[in-house]
Design a protein that fits this description.
The complex is a heterodimer of chains A (293) and B (358).
Chain A lengths: L8 H32 L3 H5 L13 H7 L2 H33 L6 H13 L4 H10 L6 H7 L4 H13 L2 H9 L4 H12 L1 H16 L3 H6 L8 H13 L2 H10 L3 H24 L14
Chain B lengths: L3 E10 L2 E11 L4 E5 L6 H9 L6 E6 L2 E2 L10 E4 L11 H11 L4 H15 L14 H13 L5 E5 L7 H18 L2 E6 L2 H7 L2 E6 L2 E6 L1 H6 L4 H6 L6 E7 L3 E4 L2 E4 L11 E6 L4 E2 L6 E5 L1 E7 L3 E8 L2 E8 L12 E5 L4 E4 L5 E2 L4
The chains are: A mainly alpha (293), B alpha+beta (358).
Amino acid sequence: MMKWNLYSRGDKFFAIVVSILIGMFTVATLYPFIYIAAVSFSSGFAAQAGRVVLTPIEATWEAYGYILTDPQFWISYRNTFIYTIGGTIMSMLFIIPGAYALSRPQLKGRRFFNLFIAFTMWFNAGLIPFFLNMRDLGLLDSMFGIILAFAVNAFNIILLRNFFEAIPQSFEEAARMDGANDFQVLWKVFVPLSKPAIATITLFCIVSRWNGFFWAMVLLQSEEKIPLQVFLRHTIANLSDDDEFAIVQTAAGFSAETVTAAIIVCSIIPVLIVYPFIQKYFEKGILLGGVKE
Amino acid sequence: MSGVNLSGIVKAYGAVQVVHGIDLDIAEKEFVVLVGPSGCGKSTTLRMIAGLEEITAGDLTIGDRRMNRVAPKDRDVAMVFQNYALYPHLNVADNMAFGLRIRKMPKAEIKTTISEVAEILGLTEYLDRRPADLSGGQRQRVAMGRAIVRHPKVFLFDEPLSNLDAKLRTQMRAEIKRLHNRLGVTSVYVTHDQVEAMTLADRIVVMNNGSIEQIGTPMELFNNPANTFVAGFLGSPPMNQLKGTLTESGAKVGETEIKLNGSVATQAGRDVIVGIRPEHVTLTAGEKTTALPISLDLVEPLGSEALLHGHFGKDSLVFKTETGGDINHLSGVGEVHVNASLVKLFDAETGHALSLGA
């Protein structure tokens, strides 16, 4: 890192502009989190009056008390975990071997398959054919249907394929000489060498599953199968035009706004907990030392 | 029996043939070095022996078994790669044990084998380290260890020393030689470095453009190169090659007639290439020597020896001479003396060596 005194005027100007832009970006990213957290701990009156800016106003746990005692909240929370864990495992079972196969030069028809998979990134059948397809497969209102339907993601496959392709061929050759078959080459050499890429993709899968809303809403009807995001949507819809609730909340000190915020905070927490554990793999250099460049 | 036999081995990528029918018989316990310039097909040949490249035509046998369609893991060969190819996520012991575990060797046996081999290679104290924490020489040794633990019939080395610095290369070269003497495993070694070839090989195979130019012991190849390519490839610096014509009594090069050891009278008038090894000249005249006038460009001191770079007509020449600890007297050199018995002759058209009549 150069000393500030050694910067030219142009460099200083550049550094200042960059810092300002990054600062603005950070605030823009962070503020909604802070705001939502503040609202969730504020009183219903304060939230409705729009008085919450940065910190809780008339701080209270009431909103959390309301949702944490709702059994449907816990059911959808559990469902979200099932969809996230099951879906991520299912995705990795498809993505890792798929990416490996597509990365191998000896795969017959490799160009065709690669093109075919990339094709789905830009063109797909669309909402209604997909819905009809799921219906005909008997996967409507099915938890397994949700897990299976979104297991394969072209972008993730291509990302991992590129990473596999960059692994020097001599690793595979050495493993083959050592007696490894394709599966052993994949699981004992390629997967450990690709931890950063796999961690990234795992996180992508987890986040997209955790936040999965639209298709869950379209495909699931039973209350006992909906995930948290759909529950959140139902709650917002219900509370907004529920007169009975309006009376209760006034007495209890929470409102539709604070309850919504509390659900959002609860839904963010697990991702925040998982991220640091995966983040350690987001470092380069795991390939260093094995081959001499 | 663990010899290796290549018979009419061809490698083609589509319409492009890169190895044109190689015949080579490697005896059990022999150390054979494939040497040649980049792109001569030596690595491809080695990879065909390993099973990493398909053989387009011809037969490969290891021991008594035809190996053309046998998977690499079933050929009982081990390979040391140019870039080591050590698994970065495993420590030294696990790297060496990788192949043994896949072959389901009992744990206790793996442990004994690893510690024996680590002892031989001086790696005992590094068994817990990852490749990234090792020096170049140590990584090279781990790569060899990984090959040795399996007790294969054949070792294949693909330019294993080319990533090491000069000093370490010399050291590792000696280690490989000692290891071969100790283990007595048939070895095929690929290099583009003729010094490695000369020092390590029982027999050298010189390759060029996908074909074998000559097979022989290092000294056979050095003393009697079959053609100008081999003559120019082996030896450091390479053999000087001058265009000339045979006369009744010798070979005429420019205005100088170089005396030859043997009769060439019957072939007078034939165009030849006269080969003179840099070290086969003296600065003083002797019996049966010819004075070759040169214009000296440069003296490169190497310590006990020096290289004299000069011109003879338009041809650049290099000679090697002893310094006796002083190079000042070399700056005035105007001619070198060529010993008749050490001059080589090659046909100017084909480049093949010519033998001299008695």
